[in-house]
Design a protein that fits this description.
The complex is a heterodimer of chains A (183) and B (426). Chain A has helices at 3-7, 25-30, 53-64, 69-89, 118-121, 131-135, 143-150; strands at residues 13-17, 37-43, 93-99, 103-110, 153-158, 164-171. By secondary structure, chain A is an alpha+beta fold. Chain A has a six-stranded antiparallel beta sheet. Chain A is globular and about 40 Å long. Chain A starts with a helix and ends in a 12-residue tail after the last strand. Chain B folds into three domains: 1-70, Alpha-Beta Plaits, CATH 3.30.70.20; 74-349, no CATH class; 365-426, Electron transport complex subunit B, putative Fe-S cluster (3-methyladenine DNA Glycosylase II, Chain A, domain 3), CATH 1.10.15.40. Chain B has 16 helices and eleven strands. Chain B has helices at 28-32, 57-61, 100-110, 123-136, 149-158, 172-187, 204-211, 227-236, 238-243, 262-267, 280-291, 320-332, 342-349, 370-386, 400-408, 418-425; strands spanning 16-18, 38-41, 44-47, 67-69, 82-87, 115-118, 143-144, 195-201, 223-226, 274-278, 300-304. In chain B, the strands form four sheets. Chain B has a four-stranded parallel beta sheet with strand order 6-5-8-9, sandwiched between helices. A three-stranded parallel beta sheet of chain B has the order 7-11-10. Chain B has a two-stranded antiparallel sheet with strand order 1-4. In chain B, helix 14 crosses helix 15. The longest helix of chain B has 17 residues, at 370-386. Chain B is globular. Chain B starts with 15 loop residues before the first strand and ends with a helix. Classes of the chains: A alpha+beta (183), B alpha/beta (426). At the A-B interface, helix 3 and helix 4 of A face helix 11 and helix 14 of B. The complex binds adenosine-5'-triphosphate, iron/sulfur cluster (2 copies) and magnesium ion. Residues 81, 84-85, 138, 143 of chain A line the site of magnesium ion. One iron/sulfur cluster is lined by residues 16, 33, 35, 37-38, 47, 52-58 of chain B.
Chain lengths: 183, 426
């Protein structure tokens, strides 16, 4: 890292949300294994007409893989909120869905401008949404808390002036597979 | 009869069917079907019974009328001692002012019915019931109207995660059927099976719902007759109707729900925010948004498969705009009805109109086993890369992605893509 960068007053902030039951949570997010299937999307800054397309496609794909409807709905909410944040607050970025046979790991990485205080951003009600975002109906400051509520493990890291990276996964614990009534 | 139901695929009843001989394989229907239920293979269309929701979209688009609706004929009435017609509100919009609603209703007695009941009779009480349901289910938002059978089936096949959002109460027409059968049994001293209850319906999905209802606890209806069939008969017997002096109660005030948007408007209250969507493709967009919790601010959403509501159903005869105008005029010039609704409301509170939790009919998954499904999905993605991405439908599948899925499942081959084959040749 260059010296001038370190001189910027902002240090790396991160927030982990991994419940105790999810034992491999941190490890899985830090060193994700090779996924079975990867979906990639480009997210454009402030393009509200396109916003939600990536999440819709992820949702549709998982529906086709037979993910339980109630789990699917959690994934849909978390993906949508994460996608909108990149549209509304960043200069644009990428979204990936790494699909495994027991979960989906969603990774978002944008081009900045980063978050000054990640812990604060995680608080319900905290928002820096601009005029346009508010006009589009966003800015309640509930996106990140909602992602946390609907996933099984999440990690967000950022630093002012740099990228924001958000990772979360949702387990398909109620897979239709294995639970069918058919003999 | 002992059957091993669990091993068998459920058979679905459909009122929409294809006259294969007539089909010229143009693929128009393939591209319009909201559930991707149709494929053209070897020059002929074929409808997948597990996917079709009887919305009727394909019927209007077919240039050679190869897709049709089967409904019940008036001959069915002969099987019963006592015959009741329950009339869907859009019926009223079909007749020009010179015939008028009263004569149109009288006609049903001439066609063999012993009594009639109008959906419009219980519009107000249905609104009260729905408002009560909304207020007593604060955790479910938005609540989705289950009035349109095509929409119920759409949610079952494409949006199973929203099934619990559907209003779990019988539709107004089924409420009437239930109520009347029980009453007639007592009043006429008949066995329930001696009573024939027929719905006079505006759309294919309503016919299907009569023959294969969803969520209903017991047998409600005995048949569904197309509004268009009745209309033709009414025209034939006009002279007799002129001579008929019987008194008919009509309920013009309650007809409005045949028109899209009116249900939402009537249910709205200071504490109830409503929204109305019609047209099946619009409904699909909205359901997708609801799935991502983007419309939780609404308490109740009216959903109709046909773009103008029930007046737009393909079993009507009149142009939907004209029918809509007539109905709204009738509503405007009508008096507020004075019906004692307490009895109905009490029945609702006692659970008399409850339905069984609606079950998914998932058509979406590629395979029941997620490992296999992922394998298939990989194949789909690989195949999709080889296809031109024009979604032209010439192959007989609705989109390139659908063709890729058909190929992965072994139901089509890459050679079906004519564009690709031509490019490879040149
Ligand atoms: N990718 C991002 N880049 C920069 N800042 C972000 C990013 N994601 C979130 N933030 C910051 O975190 C704040 C809180 O985000 P959160 O999603 O919780 O609420 P919101 O987006 O402001 O409103 P809502 O999501 O309720 O519409 C945002 O206002 C913004 O300041
Ligand atoms: S009735 Fe609707 S769902 Fe059925 S095949 Fe036609 S368009 Fe598709
Ligand atoms: S619209 Fe469908 S059913 Fe009608 S001719 Fe074309 S392919 Fe055949
Ligand atoms: Mg947000």
């Amino acid at each position: 890292m260059k010296v001038c960068e370190a001189a910027v007053s902002n240090s790396l902030h991160e927030h982990w949300a991994v419940p105790d039951e999810v034992k491999d949570g941190r490890e899985f997010i830090l060193n994700p294994p090779e996924p079975e299937l990867v979906l990639d999307y480009e997210i454009e800054s402030r393009n509200y007409a396109k916003a939600g397309k990536a999440s819709s496609d992820i949702k549709l794909t998982l529906k086709q893989l037979g993910v339980d409807p109630s789990v699917l709905r959690k994934i849909a909410i978390a993906c949508y909120e994460a996608e909108i944040n990149v549209v509304a607050h960043s200069k644009g970025g990428k979204m990936h869905a790494n699909i495994y046979d027991d979960r989906v790991l969603v990774i978002l990485e944008d081009e900045g401008p980063g978050i000054e205080d990640v812990e604060k951003a995680m608080l319900p009600g905290f928002s820096t949404a601009d005029e346009l975002a508010r006009e589009m109906g966003f800015g309640a400051g509930l996106g990140l808390p909602n992602i946390k509520k609907n996933c099984d493990a999440m990690h967000i890291s950022s630093r002012l002036g740099y990228k924001t990276r958000l990772n979360f996964f949702v387990l398909f614990d109620k897979l239709i597979n294995g639970n069918t009534n058919e003999q | 009869m002992v059957t091993q139901m669990s091993n068998k695929k459920k058979e679905y009843y459909h009122s929409v069917y294809l006259e294969t001989d007539k089909c010229v394989g143009c693929t128009k229907c393939v591209r319009i079907c909201p559930t991707e239920a149709i494929r053209v293979r070897e020059g002929k269309a074929k409808i997948d019974s597990t996917r079709c929701i009887d919305c009727g979209e394909c019927i209007n688009t077919c240039p050679v009328n190869a897709i049709r609706i089967i409904s019940d004929s008036l001959d069915e009435l002969k099987k019963y001692k006592y015959k009741l017609a329950i009339i869907s509100a859009s019926y009223a919009g079909q007749f020009a002012e010179d015939i008028g609603l009263e004569k149109a209703l009288k006609a049903l007695f001439h066609l063999g019915f012993d009594d009639i009941a109008e959906q419009a009779m219980i519009t107000d009480i249905t609104a009260d019931i729905i408002r009560d349901y909304i207020r007593t289910h604060p955790k479910i938002r938005p609540i989705l109207s289950s009035n349109c059978p095509a929409i119920v089936r759409l949610v079952q096949v494409r949006f199973p995660s929203l099934l619990s959002n559907l209003l779990h109460i019988e539709s107004p027409i089924s409420m009437l059927a239930k109520y009347y059968r029980d009453n007639i049994t007592i009043e006429e001293k008949l066995k329930p099976e001696e009573i024939g209850i027929f719905l006079i319906v505006p759309s294919a999905s309503q016919v299907t719902a009569v023959h294969q209802p969803e969520g209903t606890y017991k047998h409600l209806h005995d048949g569904a007759i197309a509004i268009s069939d009745i209309y033709c008969k009414v025209m034939d017997i006009q002279k007799d109707l002129d001579k008929d002096n019987r008194k008919i109660n009509s309920y013009a005030n309650g007809l409005s729900w045949a028109v899209a948007g009116q249900e939402a408007q009537e249910i709205a209250a200071d504490d109830i925010r409503t929204l109305a969507i019609s047209g099946i493709h619009n409904v699909i967009d909205i359901l997708s948004n609801i799935e991502s919790h983007r419309l939780d601010q609404y308490d109740y959403i009216e959903l109709r498969s046909c773009s103008q509501g029930c007046v737009g159903g393909s079993l009507n005869v009149e142009n939907p705009f004209v029918a809509e105008n007539r109905i709204l005029n009738m509503v405007r010039s009508s008096k507020k009805l004075d019906i004692d609704n307490n009895y109905f409301f009490k029945l609702y509170r006692e659970g008399y109109f409850d339905v069984i939790p609606l079950e998914p009919r998932s058509i979406m998954e590629l395979d029941k086993d997620i490992k296999k499904a992922i394998g298939l999905m990989k194949k789909v993605k690989e195949t999709l890369n080889k296809l031109p991405g024009l979604d032209c439908g010439v192959c007989g599948s609705p989109t390139c992605k659908a063709l890729a899925e058909d190929i992965a499942k072994g139901n089509a081959t890459l050679e079906d893509c004519i564009i690709r084959t031509r490019k490879l040749k040149s």
